[in-house]
Design goal:
Elements lengths: L2 H23 L2 H17 L8 H19 L21 H20 L2 H12 L4 H8 L3 H27 L1
């Protein structure tokens, strides 16, 4: 494969794949390692005539993560982590705290979903993938993706409403 093509693919998809992997494992360093391994393995094992590189990369990333999970089944890989506050912002400290709390609640809500629903939400909203692409990556029907996405959004809404209710009391 041409180096220019490799560099272009990396620049196009590395950020969203990193976020996807990070959301699966919750470990920054592990996500970076899996990201690099994803590009290496995906490009070495790319079948001839494969048209959707993005879906292929997500599939490889997902498989690498689960293979890694199997190898380290006794370790806890999904530690609760809070996203760091963005340093370069003009907002005051109270606004930063409220934003951080919102992110933390959303992260916790997503973590409560079962794995299929969590992956669908992450791919759709954080990876910007279409439901058709998600169906291909997860090897499920398009209708199944639609149903699971709907149920996941419903569960997220319910959980976030409960959290806000508790905070206001």
């Amino acid at each position: 494969m041409d180096n220019q093509i490799l560099l272009k693919l990396y620049s196009l998809y590395q950020k969203e794949l990193y976020l996807y992997l990070y959301s699966l494992c919750g470990d920054r360093h592990l996500a970076e390692d899996l990201l690099h391994e994803t590009f290496l393995k995906a490009l070495l094992a790319l079948p001839d005539g494969h048209g959707n590189m993005r879906a292929w990369l997500y599939m490889v990333a997902r498989n690498l993560f689960y293979n890694q999970q199997k190898k380290k089944s006794r370790e806890i890989l999904m530690d609760e982590q809070i996203y760091p506050l963005e340093e370069k912002t003009e907002k005051g400290l109270p606004e930063k705290i409220f934003e951080e709390e919102d992110r933390r609640m959303l992260y916790q809500a997503i973590r409560r979903l079962d794995i299929k629903k969590r992956e669908i939400i992450q791919m759709q909203y954080f990876g910007g993938m279409t439901q058709k692409e998600i169906a291909a990556v997860l090897h499920i029907t398009l209708e199944n993706v639609r149903v699971l996405a709907y149920r996941a959004r419903k569960e997220l809404k319910k959980y976030l409403e409960e959290c806000r209710k508790e905070e206001s009391q």
